[in-house]
Design brief:
Elements (H helix, E strand, L loop, with lengths): L1 H10 L16 H13 L9 E5 L8 H8 L4 E6 L6 H7 L6 E5 L14 E5 L8 H14 L3 E6 L6 H21 L10 H10 L2 E9 L13 H4 L4 H20 L6 E8 L14
Parallel strand pairs: 1-2, 1-4, 2-3, 4-5
Antiparallel strand pairs: 5-7, 6-7
Length: 281
């Protein structure tokens, strides 16, 4: 795995342009992609596969390592509902754009009529689905059109101060978005057992699951302080500003990925139809 990781860093990550988005470090996107590469080693990806990615996002953070892993004969169909701003720039810089088919779709209603994919993946995207009903619907759609489904998400666990620093700042995001827009986004992380239940309720049979430590810095809990200034409820605004200031001080000293839980699942077999039983005349 180490040699493959070094090759990925040399052949792909080194081409990703550095960013100028303080207070994030200039190499934050490369580090996030490296974390996705480490997550995907638990997925059964082989060269030549046809892979569906749910929630690719504007920065193609999982799309790039996916496209690298499927090789020249593989394809990644990258789905997102709205976030595409840097996608073309980043995938082209990585030299992998030709392996990717971007599609602007609502993952709750995928247009594919039958199983068209070897694998469907949702990496660090469960938290963006806003409620449990949507989570189950999206996973159900993934199971409907793919032979296997791979899901990975950070867990609400801190084994050191740097992981706790990430969680403290990240956990403010749901409240901030709700206070600003009246609806949740960036949900609090779910325990692995809860993720397993989502998969089962969606009609999946879990093949394998586990957790691992990415052992990398994590910067994406950050949300600008100015967001709190837009909150109309004065009491809520003051409370969130106080909590943000305290959490940001810890985050600034260093934040790290918490443990990541992952699940590999397959669709449950369809029950036999009433007309398919033996023994009739």
């Amino acid at each position: 795995m180490l040699a493959n990781e070094e090759k990925f860093e040399r052949d792909v990550l080194s081409k990703i342009p550095l960013r100028n988005e303080p207070p994030l470090p200039s190499d934050w996107l490369r580090i996030e992609m490296l974390e996705r590469f480490r997550v995907l080693r638990f997925a059964p990806i082989r060269e030549g596969m046809n892979v569906l990615e749910i929630g690719c996002g504007a920065h193609a953070i999982t799309t790039v390592p996916l496209a690298y892993l499927v090789g020249e004969t593989g394809r990644v169909v990258a789905v997102d509902k709205a976030r595409w701003r840097f996608f073309e720039e980043i995938t082209s810089a990585a030299g992998l754009r030709h392996r990717i088919i971007p599609m602007k779709l609502d993952a709750r209603e995928l247009p594919f009529p039958f199983k068209m994919f070897d694998l469907a993946v949702l990496v660090h995207g469960v938290r963006s689905l806003r409620n449990e009903e949507t989570i189950i619907k999206v996973i159900s759609e993934m199971l409907r059109i793919s032979e296997r489904v791979f899901i990975a998400e950070s867990m609400p666990v801190a084994n050191n101060e740097r992981q706790m620093a990430h969680l403290e700042l990240y956990n403010l995001r749901q409240e901030i978005f709700e206070a600003l827009f009246g609806e949740k986004d960036d949900l609090h992380y779910f325990p692995l057992e809860k993720l397993r239940k989502f998969v089962e309720r969606a009609g999946g049979k879990i093949i394998e699951s586990g957790a691992f430590e990415p052992a990398l810095p994590h910067y994406l809990a950050y949300i600008p302080r100015e967001y709190m200034g837009r909150i109309k409820d004065e009491k809520k605004r003051a409370e969130l500003l106080r909590r943000w200031d305290a959490a940001y001080k810890k985050w600034k000293r260093g934040a790290e990925y918490p443990p990541v839980g992952w699940i590999l699942a397959k669709p449950l077999p369809s029950p036999p139809s009433a007309g398919g039983t033996r023994g009739g005349r």
